[in-house]
């Protein structure tokens, strides 16, 4: 059994990595993209990969209250990034799907983010880049083993 101390330290490291990755790797120029609320990215990403989802499931997935999710979805509908539709089996359920404009926005933003990450990593030496690559591969392999049913 893994000691609680080790799990605590892993948790602390993971929490620290998000702002560190953002500050160190994603800094750069984002010309032509008006910065939307941060919650739009995980929401649009989830819709891109999973397809249309009920609003309640989206809210739960990004840890947002339903009233706040409604407000965010309303804004994104006006922007043309998502659309609402009734579930064909249960008309009480509202499903949200990403539009072509939403997909185009995400693809454009992902390209800019990747370009900035590549530019920021280019200041590292070859040895550090190889270590970082192997570390990321190890993290992906280990994290993928976590049971997804515990959501």
Would you mind describing this structure in some detail?
There is one protein chain. By secondary structure, the protein is mainly alpha-helical. It has a domain at 34-122: Winged helix-like DNA-binding domain superfamily/Winged helix DNA-binding domain (Arc Repressor Mutant, subunit A). Helices cover 62% and strands 8% of the residues. Helix 3 packs across helix 4. It is globular, with a radius of gyration of 19 Å.
Query: What is the H/E order?
Result: HHEHHEEHH
- What is the alpha-carbon Rg in Å? 19 Å
Q: Give the amount of beta strand, in percent.
A: 5-15%
CATH homologous superfamily name of the domain at 34-122?
A: Winged helix-like DNA-binding domain superfamily/Winged helix DNA-binding domain
Q: Please estimate the helix content.
A: 55-70%
* Euclidean distance between termini CA atoms: 22 Å
Write the layout of secondary structure elements.
Blueprint: H1 4-25, H2 40-50, E1 53-54, H3 55-61, H4 66-79, E2 82-86, E3 94-98, H5 100-121, H6 126-143
Antiparallel strand pairs: 1-3, 2-3
Helix pairs in contact: 3-4
What's the short version?
It contains 6 helices and 3 strands, in the order ααβααββαα.
């Amino acid at each position: 059994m893994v000691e609680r101390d080790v799990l605590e330290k892993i948790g602390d490291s993971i929490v620290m990595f998000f702002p560190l990755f953002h500050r160190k790797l994603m800094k750069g120029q984002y010309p032509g993209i008006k910065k939307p609320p941060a919650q739009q990215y995980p929401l649009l990403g989830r819709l891109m990969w999973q397809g249309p989802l009920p609003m309640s499931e989206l809210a739960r997935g990004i840890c947002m209250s339903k009233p706040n999710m409604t407000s965010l979805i309303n804004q994104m509908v006006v922007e043309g990034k998502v659309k609402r539709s009734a579930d064909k089996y249960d008309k009480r359920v509202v499903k949200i799907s990403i539009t072509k404009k939403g997909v185009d926005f995400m693809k454009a933003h992902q390209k800019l983010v990747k370009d900035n990450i590549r530019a920021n990593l280019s200041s590292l030496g070859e040895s550090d880049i190889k270590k970082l690559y192997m570390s990321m591969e190890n993290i992906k392999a280990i994290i993928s083993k976590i049971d997804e049913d515990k959501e």
